[in-house]
Design a protein that fits this description.
Layout lengths: L12 H11 L18 H13 L1 H6 L2 H15 L5 E5 L1 H18 L6 E5 L17 H11 L6 E5 L6 H12 L3 E6 L5 H5 L2 E4 L14 H20 L16 H15 L3 H10 L4 H10 L3 H10 L4 H9 L5
Parallel strand pairs: 1-2, 1-3, 3-4, 4-5
Helix pairs in contact: 4-9, 5-9, 6-7, 10-12, 11-12, 12-13, 12-14, 13-14
Length: about 325
């Protein structure tokens, strides 16, 4: 039985305050012009929704200077051995876990180098974990378990910019000396204020009131794509626009590996196969063997000395001569 003072009571001051906070958020705004959307033909609804999505890229574009600064700061820390950690709840948390899980096969990152934390843990990826997003303490505990420190970057992801789990993660990380980034979809958010770098992508009210898995989720996915991808470019994980650090863990990626070596070097199929055999299937090393005229062990040594940057290793191998 509820008492009027219980946080769960419809009449509680806490619930009333929360309701007022949500009503003030752009992402929660009601759009009366869409009140009859359920009565429209399917094609009309799809057309409206597609038009809504078309504006997301522009909203992200408006925040590119802030994003670039955050990427440069992240890359500098990761170059020192730091980690990139995403923390969020619900859709925001799932997007962070997704981006983190795609880094090892795409960029051959080490286990634990890019981490996705979601409020409620792994079960929350497929099932809502009641109350998990409301716990700042849970986020602090998750980060403490990782031993987050000054070389790490923690990205709190929250469409509203007020989710306690994301806020708690950023607050804990900042005290620990880590770089902090707050990614939200409301201007002047508590999350942005708590972080070193605020990236507030304002996409406006959703097609379905408060359903931030829509435009807000799309915006978050675009930003996380850029954050991880450009950081990896800065770390030397690519050669031009080729994924030379790809991990060939299945037949499709093995085929892609051969194609990347051929595109980077212009080598024949036989030369490509020989270089990959010489380097144990390592694409970056194989490219250096072919363009730098070195053997596999020398390629590995040069890449280690250059911090994994293929262009720098190639410059050393060729004495600065064009390859």
């Amino acid at each position: 039985m509820y008492s009027p003072d219980s946080p769960d009571s419809p009449d509680s001051p806490a619930r009333a305050a929360l309701g007022a906070q949500l009503a003030a958020l752009t992402t929660e705004a009601f759009r009366p012009e869409l009140a009859d959307i359920d009565r429209l033909p399917t094609l009309d609804i799809a057309t409206i929704m597609n038009g809504e999505d078309a504006g997301v890229a522009g909203a992200v574009a408006a925040r590119l200077p802030e994003l670039a600064a955050a990427i440069d700061a992240t890359a500098a820390r990761m170059a020192r051995g730091g980690r990139l950690v995403y923390a969020g709840a619900g859709t925001a948390g799932r997007l962070g876990v997704l981006d983190a899980s795609e880094c090892p096969p795409t960029f051959n990152t080490e286990p634990g180098q890019v981490v996705g934390l979601i409020a409620g843990g792994t079960p929350a990826l497929v099932t809502a974990v009641e109350g998990a997003e409301d716990s700042a303490e849970l986020a602090a505990g998750d980060l403490a378990a990782l031993g987050v420190g000054p070389d790490d970057t923690v990205v709190g992801v929250s469409a509203s910019g007020r989710t306690p789990y994301a806020l708690g993660a950023v607050t804990h990380a900042r005290v620990a000396g880590a770089l902090t980034i707050g990614l939200s979809c409301n201007a002047g958010s508590p999350l942005g204020a708590a972080a070193d770098h605020a990236i507030e992508v304002v996409v406006g009210p959703e097609l379905l009131t408060g359903s931030t898995r829509l435009k807000a989720g799309t915006a978050q996915k675009l930003v996380l794509n850029m954050l991880s991808t450009i950081t990896m470019i800065r770390l030397g994980k690519t050669y031009g626009n080729l994924m030379v650090d790809v991990r060939a863990s299945n037949e499709k990626l093995r085929v892609r590996s051969r194609r990347i070596v051929a595109l980077a070097t212009g080598a024949s199929e036989a030369e490509t196969e020989a270089a990959l055999a010489e380097t144990g299937g390592e694409v970056k090393n194989a490219v250096l063997v072919l363009l730098g005229g070195v053997d596999g062990p020398t390629a590995a040594r040069l890449l280690e000395a250059s911090g994994g940057h293929l262009r720098a290793a190639l410059h050393t191998a060729t004495g600065g001569r064009p390859s």
